[in-house]
Model the fold of this input.
Amino acid sequence: MTSPLAILFNYAVVDIRWLTPNLVTLASFVTALVSAAFILVGGTTNFVIAAGLIHLSHVFDCMDGQMARYRKTTSASGSYFDRATDQIQVTLWFGAVGYAAYDQSGSVLPVFLAFIGVAFYSLRGYVKYVAIHVEMSRDARYLERMAEDASAGEGVEAASQGFDLWASVRWFISEQRKIVRFNEGVFIFMLSLALVLDRLTPMLWVFAVSQLGHGLFRSWQQGRNIHLSQQMRVEK
Done:
């Protein structure tokens, strides 16, 4: 839901020239900080406010990229700060929830679960860049070849000028694959729901187990790809 809401918000502000995508990224980050503060304070009302702010932060997070693409002002630095602040936000949110659950229960288990979840969520991205570094140490054209392969293999669906109901339904169905991937959008919803229902520790179990599984699988997958790539080059 946050991406369509971001489009709606952008309709209102995208032509305000002083409002840059980087400022929207900053607004997303500040909103995330405020939401984490409400979680730390604790209490049902503060949890509900935090849940709303988390979704608002994610709307802003979608807006900055949309705005940059619409204006044709995308930049490497903007992409970097967007991704870096995303990582910090996830750490702050789940760290705050781990503390709030500890404060409620007196058990250190929620803090441990939050730590495991954040660590293995970070590992999912880390192993990707380690694999790129390893491949480029052997082949300076690795990224160039990967980009060529991706361009040759992807099917790009052209956007229509009008509203296509069936295209929208197909897009919505394809988006549901993210549920099993447990990426950022999914566990932001999961986190917000847990705050509204005040069920923090069960959510942290789901977060920790899902990120542990995905982190280990991605680590094995990247290592296997490097091994297979090395064998193919030896055969050549």
